Amino acid sequence: MTIKQFVKNITATLLTSSALCLALGIVLVIVPGMSAAIICYGLGAAGVVFGIVNIALYLTSQDQRSIIAGAATLILGAIILLRPDIIVSVLPTILGVVLIVNGIAIVQIALETRLELDKWWIILIVGVCNTALGIIAMLNPFTTMEIIMMFVGICLIFAGACDIFSLLLSKKVIDKIKQAAKTGKEEYNEID
């Protein structure tokens, strides 16, 4: 896979998931009293869309990570759509796991780019905050559904914004890699 394809795949995946997180988060903060079933349908639809996008990325670029993420989110999205009542009881735990995994991925990006970026520590802080929100969500310290929904909305907004922020900061590294590829360094032409 060429660096250009790799960058396009990562960018498309991050922007799609970030936009879905932001949109759902905004709805939950504005209308926290909406029913949990409607939230589950939204999450299920988002999972199905995200899964289809990742599967399409796999079919066009053979990126194995896209097919794994796509299949997993497509299946999870379908389960949520078919059984929202079960999902409501574990929603804080699911959100917590997603935020923790996302936070760890952002921390990894920060550590991998620390030599190329002057402000890599900002990405690190964002990743740590994302992970902390995930842990709080898993502990579920809330008593009313409305407060839970507002917290879920805030977490989704934060996660979506963090992904976009990390993508923008990482663009500097991508530009350096592109420049190195243009100057003839062969090791940047292919990513194994």
Q: Care to describe what's here?
A:
By secondary structure, this protein is an all-alpha fold. Helices cover 83% and strands 0% of the residues. Helix 2 (36-61) runs antiparallel to helix 3. The protein contains six helices and no strands. The chain has one domain (3-188). The longest helix is centred in the last third of the chain and has 38 residues, at 145-182.
Compute the separation of the termini in Å.
7 Å
Estimated structural class? mainly alpha
Order of helices and strands, N to C? HHHHHH
Overall shape: it is: globular
Number-wise, the strands total 0
The total count of helices amounts to 6
Structurally, how many domains make up the residues? Answer: 1
The overall average pLDDT, rounded, is 78
Cα gyration radius (Å): 18 Å
- Largest sheet, if any? none
Low-pLDDT runs of 5+ residues are none
**Strand content of the residues, in percent?**
under 5%
Helix amount, in percent? over 70%
